[in-house]
Amino acid sequence: MKKPTSSLLLIFITSISFFTNAQGQTIDQVIKPKESLAHFRFLASDELKGRDALRSEIDIAAKYIANQFWKYGAKELSNANGYFQPIPFRLSQPPQSALIQLDTSLLKHGDNLLMMDGGSLKGKFELKIAGYGLEENLKNIDLNGKILVTRVGAPGKTNPAEILELGRKKQQWAKGKGAIGLIEMYHLPNTPWGLLTNYLNKPRLTIAESFDQPSSIPYFWVKDLDGKLMHFIDQNKSVKAKISIESKGNQLIKGRNVIAKIEGTDAQLKNEFVMLSAHFDHLGVGRVDAEGDSIYNGARDNAVGTVALINAAQYFAQNPPKRSVLLCAWTAEEKGLLGSAYFAENPLIPLDQIIYNLNIDNGGYNNTEIITVVGLGRSTADPLIKEAINHYGLKTIPDPSPEQGLYDRSDNVNFAKKGIPAPTFSLGFTAFDEEIMKYYHQPADEVDSMDLEYVMKYWKSYLLTAQKIANMKEQPFWLPGDKYEAAGKSLYGY
Ligand SMILES: [Zn+2]
């Protein structure tokens, strides 16, 4: 291979910056401050009451985003419901009261008992122990009219996310075998009972199986750290549980992601999609702050990212890149990354056609000379990200506090797990310091406390980055050794 002469190199470098400059100028012509800020002020307004996925104002936000996608010329997906992907959510409410009497032990909700799910129930019921309550444990046992008693989690599955996911499955399996309830004995020392039950003992949103009204059997956790209760039941097979629950029951909530696409210009590459995503929900109305404000506007988190998607609809509809662009505004991120999780499991575009996910989400900023890209240093698209951000006179830094696990705490992770390279674009932060905490998940997170000139540069950097990646010659991929590299290879068949 011949080394390029310095003059060739110079031509090469100037041609890169020539393209970047031309694209940057087009972005300047299309994306105007007043128009973008009008979207921003609307989405972060008090009238939308903090865009809580459990409040009706979330529908106003969703419709607004859909209308902007339509106005600017982004298209509906043929397998969606207009610009929407409907999602069945289930809201589980803590019971008014729940008591279980087991011989001489009285178990009380909020104390040594936690009712996780299900409706009212009263009576005396037979108990049946079956290991961890996994499908193989339930094969040859009769659960009809009985309460299934199991250990929480499964061997090797002991972290909170795993045991919650597994618990919901056990509940379905038990119900399928005719059980009228499920008790999981909690014995895990690594997550304290008090911490976990405090977190869980409030209304919780999860993804439901379907849009049918949820019907589920009562499901409990019982504190049994030393295993004594489990042992007692095992030794006294005839003991019955006297149960009394007054429950508010569960509620079906209809949620929606907002989805649109812009077709690419290249006959081949248009079958590949660069997914641009941002969650549009926030925390709603809550605790009053020192100023008497109780509306969590979520300007930084994440109206600013939502406007980046609206700007992308406007810019790319007029300037489509070679690859197609998929615009995804997720609901219910703040309830546990639910909207993106639903799409990852029910994708409207096959996941192996989505070659990259440029997510945008924000806690806040403490430095207006940089943009922080959580996940920088993990894919082959990095040089393009830096080039685009550099065009606006800003520097790119990676996640400054990897110990916070931000990469695995935002919507991007639902796609990274599937193998799609998926960084998150964020306003410049160098640490989770006092300046960030002033606004992070606070009522003070409002448009007027932000540096709007910086916000304009931030929006434009996002567009230029997206454009470069959508025009990349090679498909971007994980750098060797990344923990999601194997998932990527299996997704794309490398
Ligand atoms: Zn966020």
Automatic annotation (TrEMBL):
- Keyword match Metal-binding: yes
**Which keywords accompany this UniProt record?**
Aminopeptidase, Hydrolase, Metal-binding, Protease, Signal, Zinc
Q: Where is the signal peptide?
A: 1-22
| Coiled coil region boundaries | none
Record has Transport as a keyword: no
Read off the InterPro entries from this record.
M28_fam, PA_dom_sf, Peptidase_M28
Residue ranges of domain Peptidase M28 in the record: 257-453
Under the heading PANTHER family, the entry gives: AMINOPEPTIDASE YDR415C-RELATED, METALLOPEPTIDASE M28 FAMILY MEMBER
Protein name, per record: M28 family peptidase
Species source reads: Echinicola jeungdonensis
Tell me the organism's taxonomic lineage.
Bacteria, Pseudomonadati, Bacteroidota, Cytophagia, Cytophagales
